[in-house]
Amino acid sequence: MFRRERSIPLRSSAAALSNNLSVLQLPARDLTHFGVVHGPSAQLLSAAPEGVPLAQRQLHVKEGAGVSPPLITQVHWCVLPFRVLLVLTSHRGIQMYESDGSVMVYWHALDSGDASSVQAMFARGIAASVHFICVGTCSGRVLVFDIPAKGPNIVLSEELAGHQTPITDIATERAQGQDGVADMVTADDSGVLCVWRSGPEFTLLTRIPGFGVPCPSVQLWQGIVAAGYGNGQVRLYDASTGALHVQISAHARTISALDLAPEVGKLLSAAEDTFVHIWKLNRNPESGSIEVEHCHGECVSDTQVCGVRFCDPLGSSFAVTGYDLAEILRFGTV
Amino acid sequence: MSVRTLPLLFLNLGGEMLYVLDQRLRAQNIPGDKARKVLNDIISTMFNRKFMEELFKPQELYSKKALRTVYDRLAHASIMRLNQASMDKLYDLMTMAFKYQVLLCPRPKDVLLVTFNHLDAIKGFVQDSPTVIHQVDETFRQLSEVYGKLSEGEFQLIRQTLLIFFQDLHIRVSTFLKDKVQNSNGRFVLPVSGPVPWGTEVPGVIRVFSVKGKEVKKMKFRHGGDYVAAQKEGSFELYGDRVLKLGTNMYSASRPVETHMSATSKNAASRAQENIVPNPLAKEELNFLARLMGGMEIKKLSGPEPGFRLNLFTTDEEEEHAALSRPEELSYEVISIQATQDQQRNEELARIMGEFEITEQPENTSKGDDLLAMMDRL
């Protein structure tokens, strides 16, 4: 069903982080942008169809005080109604760039008085929600930035408290049947999930308790929360009630990344066990219960997968990054 | 990343170092009492209380250079001497072994079991010295105290920090190649069969729940691996069955261990970058070394104790050849100090180093024995 296609070489290998691949699809320009974190640097590159690499750029953390060069935790494109920004989170703070990474438009330093010296300090977890960009921190707080249609006048408008352990991932989707409103789910290192509704202020809708295992990756689709856990499970919850509908023993090691193709309801799961799986999500129109079907499994030999993304809206192709791997692997439908 | 990584890194690398030294001492037919003394001296230096205190303070990981310098010092805490080439090979073996162990840990917290495996073996090396055993037990207690209460999320962060430290190291080790745990391109084999980690279910099951939370349907799917359930959990107590084999001694007297230098051009580019950029953090690292080594008590040798040179290779010629043919990008540079700046700190370090008594080797002294000498060389 899927076959390996041409890989895209990277200047440097991918780091063993979660959600370590961001993809920006630009079908109108026949381009795809990829973003991968190496460690102290992140690499952005753009590729033509068939994976032919075009331009590439490296980004670093803005301020470098400390014993060793500060590490980047995540790089992610945020698609907003009027612009696309590239967000980079690190052990120093949050950097936002124009989508090609050429110009930094905003820098937010993490408050060092925040965490004690016993804990590491970092930002992690990035998502766009209407005209906001939300970024998680190691304290568990989620920072909400108000983004103007253009220019650098970005403002920290709110700090959400709902988590006590470091944020791992954030996912958003437009609220069903409502314009200008989005739902958001935030996940943390203890496996707790919070579902929010955005607006002038964010409101907490539901809180789903953890079970002692981190939740490194989370997705949201049609009111379904898809969460990947450190014990290899993928769980599907109803976002409004928080009820667990489906529990999948999907992987033999921790999930490292999830992605969604929202137009078709396909879910991609990747884990440190070298496997990538594709699932079809469905909401039963009568009972309202969540259903899932396994579509495909792929073994990326001897590779601890750390990032995975669909590369087209129909989910017929996807890209994979792995720890120590200096290339982006691509898979397409036969 | 995590500020709790250094003790685990140091102890496990130290454990691997002792495994290799033990094997080489036996292979080179060093008399039993001398060999035991060497290991005893190194182990008692490693587990010195003041040293451990410094190590366990929450701190970021230091550079590979700084860490390598500590092991250079440690390896010379006895009457044994190692040439540069042998020290390089020793460090290669240590790092690749621990990288392998971290990568293959079923759960992130299993790195603690790996550490305990090393400590268990270390106690075996010094079973005739109750004082040293006590030191190791103390460290065990400290590990349990610090890491016993960490969450899975914190262990995952430690794991990620360790893997970032070991990123891009692909030195091929003959034992690993022979055992088929490493591919010929230097990458480790990640098996997709065997027991799942403790706390993980065998993949392949989909459970559907009702609104009330009752399981109403169970389906299977083909996940592609060949996993079985875990039998039991390893013990985190002072004594106990660790279950996990990672971190136990894989060397035996009959298996000579070779490494193959292989560096792809890609690795060379990024590593050359690392070495060319002047290290503005040398001062911080010097501080760290001074504090760490200030706690390292080197036994003063009494009487005309003759030292000896250990060779990690089978012949002297091999060792010489290895020194000459080591690829540029894989050379371990020791800390480069701006000798002109910070006179006071250099004096302080010199004072500390002065407390380390090193037996003068009559003819074979390599200039690299003394840390200051190493610094002067650069």
Automatic annotation (TrEMBL), chain A:
Classification via InterPro entries: WD40/YVTN_repeat-like_dom_sf (IPR015943), WD40_repeat_dom_sf (IPR036322), WD40_rpt (IPR001680), WDR54_beta_prop (IPR049546)
Report the record's Gene Ontology biological process terms. negative regulation of receptor internalization; regulation of epidermal growth factor receptor signaling pathway; regulation of MAPK cascade; single fertilization
MF terms (GO), sorted A to Z: protein homodimerization activity
Per the record, the major location class is: membrane
Q: Fetch the Gene3D superfamilies from UniProt.
A: YVTN repeat-like/Quinoprotein amine dehydrogenase
Pfam families named in the record: WDR54
Q: In which ranges do the WD repeats occur?
A: 248-289
Arranged from A to Z, the UniProt key words for this protein are: Cell membrane, Cytoplasm, Fertilization, Membrane, Repeat, Ubl conjugation, WD repeat
Tell me where in this chain the WD repeat-containing protein 54 beta-propeller domain is found.
1-334
What GO CC terms are in its UniProt record?
Answer: cytoplasm; plasma membrane; vesicle
Where is this protein localized, as stated in its record? Cell membrane; Cytoplasm; Vesicle
Does this UniProt record's set of keywords contain Cytoplasm?
yes
Superkingdom to which the source organism belongs: Eukaryota
The record's subunit annotation is: Homodimer and homotrimer; forms tight forms of dimers and trimers. Interacts with IZUMO1 and IZUMO1R/JUNO.
Biological role = Plays a role in the adhesion and fusion of the sperm-oocyte membrane through its interactions with IZUMO1 and IZUMO1R/JUNO. When cross-linked to form dimers and trimers, it has a regulatory effect on ERK signaling pathway activity in response to EGF stimulation. Colocalizes with the EGF receptor in WDR54-specific vesicle where it sustains the internalization and controls the degradation of the EGF receptor after EGF stimulation.
Name of the molecule in the record: WD repeat domain 54
**Originating species:** Mus spicilegus
From TrEMBL, chain B:
GO annotations of cellular component type:
cytoplasm; plasma membrane
Bilayer-spanning residue ranges: none
This chain belongs to which protein, by name?
Organic solute carrier partner 1
Q: Which organism is it from?
A: Mus spicilegus
Provide the organism lineage as a comma list: Eukaryota, Metazoa, Chordata, Craniata, Vertebrata
